[in-house]
Amino acid sequence: MIRIEPREAPSRWWTIGVPVISALVALLMAAIPLMAAGANVFESYAAMAKGIFGSTFAFTEMLTRATPLIFTGLAATLAFRAKLWNIGAEGQLYLGAMAAVAVGTGLIDAPSYILIPIILLAGAAAGAAGMAGPAYLKTRFGADEVVTTLLLNFIILIFLQMMLEGPLKDPLGMGWPQSEPIVDNAILPQLIPRMRVHSGLIIAIIAAVIAHVMLSKSVWGFKLRAVGENAAAALHAGIGVKRTLMGAAVVSGAMAGLAGVSEVAGLRGYLTTDLSPGFGYTGIVVAMLAGLSPIGVVISAIFIASVFVGADTMSRAMGVSSYLADLVVALSLICVLIGGFIARFRITRANKGDA
Amino acid sequence: MDILQILLSDSFWAATLRIATPLIFGVLGALVCEKSGVLNLGIEGIFVAGAMAGWMAVWLGAGLWGGLLVAAMVGGFFGLIHAILTVPLGLSQHVSGLGVTMLATSVSYFTYRTALPNVSSPPKITPFQPLDIPVLSDLPFVGPVLFQQTAMTWLALFMVALVWWVLNRTPLGLAIRAVGDNPDAADAQGLSVYKLRIGAIIAGSALMALGGAFLTMSAFDSFFFGMVNGRGWISIALVIFASWRPGKALLGALLFGAFDAFQVRLQTEVGAFVPSQVFLMAPYVLSIFALVIVARRAEYPRALLKPWFKGQR
């Protein structure tokens, strides 16, 4: 009969191989809906590849799309490592964007090297506050953070509408609910002239490196991982579980807030209700695909961004709905889940006589 | 119309029951899954899938009840995916649920867009009509509130009774509850933990899908993106609020429906002074509030969220 038993230690190959294979399998499985939609599969994939690698512009577009995903991927990674289920990155992103707009549209007059750090700080703080609330409700009242963060997303979105039609509204905006533009000194500089990719990308990569170092080399990171592995054992070992969770929440929320700042001050220039097409939620998939590793998040974000950008191009070329990208992303998540299982366990045959 | 007038009006209570209906399905569905020990965060996506599949089945020619059957089967299908990932494979119930939500939502949206690529306004079907029972529908107050609802609302109320009866008065229900509280003991008794959990998840997911179908086949008559708008998550919160009891679940859904119906009417009263968005936020704030109040004392099914493997102790 068949028995499933855990491997002693998953080998290095599996840890890297699983996400890569999952991603490829998910991409291949996209052929099924493509065929169902009546599109030529090969032409579709070709159009997708062209949309990513076909030109410098396409490539930089992909990097632009990856920037917020790195931030939200880091947000999910840092929280999930502590077994803190932050599903609220979407809302925290908007909190960060709102803070950036509140501070960066003329409130303060200062040169860039002062103003940019200020809006980054403001955005990070706002995002952190957005996760601190649910984390507090969890540690103090035992309220499940999955539900509270999810519901908070909706609340924040409605709050955003209220702000954009009220205090944050652009008086010169011809009546549209949008914010005033970010002042020039607070705009994150472009990296390449005439391309949309901006220094938010650099900040994101730096954040990933910092997160990696803190997670793997610092005491704080150790405590966070310990709490995530086994909170009861960590408590027994003297680690302040509640404090560690709050710390994880603050950092996670801050990352998501930075995603908002990056999008508003680096890409768009002003805030609207559709700033984020679900970056917060996609960040969860980015994190899972990266095996909850901060450096992996960068690569994973680039992959997911490629899928979206490629699907957009393919959708225009082949007439297939661009929701295909969301399908591929969802499939990636499920594949990586299954793949993780395959890596951690192995199927053996045992004779009936064995215990 | 002042507050008392609102509370005494039949249109308010009729709206309460109407708004509560999808939540009743959702809470019951989540309740059944969680009673067996598995959290099903796929609920939001299953709502979307049920809404789309049910609507599309009717649009393609199936009758309304045929559409409901299709919706339930689609829900059961996504539930099966979640069940396989979480029960025999024992993977993270949180991540699997979120994956199912994403999958169900994206499949639904993609299918809808592919089938109807160029529509400027969503096509309509003929939805469930309000019941018209000879004597009962004309009764004052009770008439509009109870007897002019659509058939789906009555189905929801019936489901409350059915779920209660199965869980509390049948051996199957006892087995499900056993598996959710103490799977080791259940296994020792000879019950199949796997089969019971998988079955419960499929059944619960079918119920969830009906909640989604209510939106496109009874409350409205077409499908549009973003129409579920968090009702699945609210149902998850309400299950905890209901202490996993069908009767309390009905109460919770009605309470929520009452608040939502109330805030709509309140808007016309104080709309000049308070921005409309404050009222829109109210349902979600309320759900969080309800969750926080009961969280400490919540009697979780003791094996909830813990994967169970045959052969391990």
Question: Mind explaining what this structure looks like?
Answer:
- The complex is a heterodimer of chains A (355) and B (313).
- Chain A is built from 14 helices and 2 strands.
- Chain A is mainly alpha-helical and 355 residues long.
- Chain A is globular, with a radius of gyration of 22 Å.
- With 313 residues, chain B is mostly helical.
- Chain B is globular, with a radius of gyration of 20 Å.
- Chain B has 13 helices and no strands.
- Chains A and B meet through helix 7, helix 12 and helix 14 of A and helix 5, helix 11 and helix 13 of B.
Please describe the topology of this protein.
The complex is a heterodimer of chains A (355) and B (313).
Chain A: E1 2-6, H1 12-29, H2 31-36, H3 41-53, H4 56-81, H5 89-104, H6 112-141, H7 145-164, H8 200-217, H9 219-229, H10 231-236, H11 241-268, H12 279-289, H13 294-318, H14 323-344, E2 345-349
Antiparallel strand pairs in A: 1-2
Helix pairs in contact in A: 1-14, 3-4, 3-13, 4-8, 4-11, 4-12, 4-13, 5-6, 5-7, 5-11, 5-12, 6-7, 6-11, 8-9, 8-11, 8-13, 9-11, 12-13, 12-14, 13-14
Chain B: H1 3-8, H2 10-35, H3 43-59, H4 64-86, H5 93-115, H6 142-147, H7 151-169, H8 171-181, H9 183-188, H10 193-219, H11 231-241, H12 246-270, H13 276-295
Helix pairs in contact in B: 2-7, 2-10, 2-11, 2-12, 3-4, 3-5, 3-10, 3-11, 4-5, 4-10, 7-8, 7-12, 8-10, 11-12, 11-13, 12-13
Brief characterization of the structure:
The complex is a heterodimer of chains A (355) and B (313). Chain A has 355 residues and is an all-alpha fold.
Low-confidence stretches of chain B: none
Structural class of chain A: mainly alpha
Q: Please tell me the overall pLDDT of chain B.
A: 89
Q: How many β-strand stretches of chain A?
A: 2
Across the major sheet of chain A, the strand order is 1-2
Bin the helical content of chain B.
Answer: over 70%
Number of strands of chain B: 0
Mean pLDDT of chain A: 88
Number of helices of chain A: 14
Radius of gyration of chain A: 22 Å
